[in-house]
From TrEMBL, chain A:
SUPFAM superfamilies: Ribonuclease PH domain 2-like (SSF55666), Ribosomal protein S5 domain 2-like (SSF54211). Belongs to the RNase PH family. Keywords: Cytoplasm, Exosome, Nucleus, RNA-binding, rRNA processing. It is found in: Cytoplasm; Nucleus. It comes from Coemansia biformis. One of its GO terms (biological process) is U4 snRNA 3'-end processing. This is 3'-5'-exoribonuclease. It comes from the Eukaryota. Residues 45-185, 189-247 form the Exoribonuclease phosphorolytic domain. GO terms for molecular function: RNA binding. InterPro entries: ExoRNase_PH_dom1, ExoRNase_PH_dom2, ExoRNase_PH_dom2_sf, PNPase/RNase_PH_dom_sf, Ribosomal_Su5_D2-typ_SF, RNase_PH. The gene is MTR3.
TrEMBL record, chain B:
Keywords: Exosome, Nucleus, RNA-binding, rRNA processing. Pfam families: ECR1_N, KH_6, S1_RRP4. This is Exosome complex component rrp4. Signal peptide: none annotated. Its main location: nucleus. Transmembrane segments: none annotated. It is found in: Nucleus. Residues 69-149 form the S1 motif domain. GO terms for biological process: CUT catabolic process; exonucleolytic trimming to generate mature 3'-end of 5.8S rRNA from tricistronic rRNA transcript (SSU-rRNA, 5.8S rRNA, LSU-rRNA); nuclear mRNA surveillance; nuclear polyadenylation-dependent rRNA catabolic process; poly(A)-dependent snoRNA 3'-end processing; TRAMP-dependent tRNA surveillance pathway; U4 snRNA 3'-end processing. GO terms for cellular component: cytoplasmic exosome (RNase complex); nuclear exosome (RNase complex). Belongs to the RRP4 family.
Amino acid sequence: MAANIIDRRRINGPQRSVEPLYTHVDAAADPFASGRGDGRALDQVRPIFVKTGPLSAHRSESALSSAAAASGAAFYEQGKIRVSCAVYGPRQGRRSSARMGSFDCDFRYAPFACSWKRRSHVKGADEREISLMLEHAIAPAIRLEAYPKACIDAYVTVIESDGKAATIAAAINCISAALADAGIEMYDSVAACSMGLTGARWVADCAQPEEDAASCSMLIAYMPSADEVTYILQHGKTTPEQTDQAVQTCTNMCARVYAVICRYLQDSLE
Amino acid sequence: MEVDTETQVMDVTARIVTPGSAITSDPGFIRGHGTFGEGPTIYSSVAGVIERINKLVSVRSLKQRYGGEIGDIVVGRITEVAAKRWRVDVNSRQDGVLLLSSINLPGGIQRRKSESDELQMRTFFSEGDLVFAEVQSYFADGALSLHTRSIQYGKLRNGTFVAVFPQLVPRSRTHFHTLPCGVDVVLGVNGYIWISKHVSAAKVEANAEHIYSDKNEPISDEERESIARVANCVQLLNRLYVKITETSIIFAYEESLGHAPKDLLALDVAAELAHSVTGRLRQQS
């Protein structure tokens, strides 16, 4: 028999299980004893810049019809991270269910987005994975039942990345702003924030070198007015107390990021 | 976020909110578009301005898709030919539907549509064609059902298409205008606008056999230039976020006469025109 036929009824895991090897963390060592490289406090997010509408109909000079342009768009900066997002829809979907609308997300790194290597223009497995994560983080906030048969598409491009978890958080914030710009009905805007565990300390919004030094990273997407977490992602090992602390700090920071985005949206509508 | 107290409730107008902000917790209010309720509290679901009509609270966002109402005049593009129906892109949340039974046959013949009509649906409308139609009813899922059962509705030709923000086209008694410059304009409430060479109603009726023709009539250079000028004027009004009506198009047209049609959307010319057009509109109102 061919060996590549898989028996789907059994658990096809390995026979033996092994506890993962964690890199040894020296809790006593504290690289942040003299503060962070860019002078931020440990629970401080990098400065944020948001702008909605750079790709949408009335701004683009070349678009002949607004049908060709995005319904909503946003550009988001957080320190060195630069993300842009275009939202299309709600429009008739190809494979949409009759009762609920669908939300699809396409996350791409620009070929030059990462400073340490040039990315291929072919979509990588990590980009697919992040696309799904973004869908899961954002979809609970959208009132999909208000859009039967319709689909809403978000296209996210990372122009520059600096810390993987922080880039995903920036993408979530950028999509929220773009959805609000598109006038799509939502229960709440989603704000996201990431943290890294270095030694025994949680460090907010890690840049790439800080993330490389961290033993664990945590990403939380949160709806502040509804007080609901839509997505939580942890890489690495922590104690339950540390996780608890991280969730607390992260949601507080999300609320602050949310305030920045809301403030911008209100000002832009004046 | 913050919840209004009873005293602030009356001040819900002219406030800007973002998705998820609480508008009021007074159970006396009814929630309208752009809001959702949880318990007695009404929250905003879009970023926009709060509007209040008596007890009804709604939030209007700057950009919104077209939500159809029965009797609306729309311009749409055929996206698919399906069984006994066409699917039409009407700039809405989902495609509209034009049933084979709700179109006119060439020559105005009145009869039931037969199987042979069903087989030659593409001779009436095929993919990519533009139609001028009226909203007849809704389907259960909110999709619009259109009809073209009038001599003035039907296939569009002899002109050009412009898409604008749907909220800029107000509902009015008539949506088909013949401008003094000899150009016909169809203002679809869904934000799709068709600008074409003027063809008199008598001629349209005489040509009832050819209402589904794909061939343009001969269009002279002057007519082409007027059409292009009107199209760019509509684009300009859209960019200015000004209501697009017969009057505003005529104003823009008259103000633009000093420039070549192709220059109208250049930034410096557009800025100059914007100033004079908005000035005239303000004077008029």
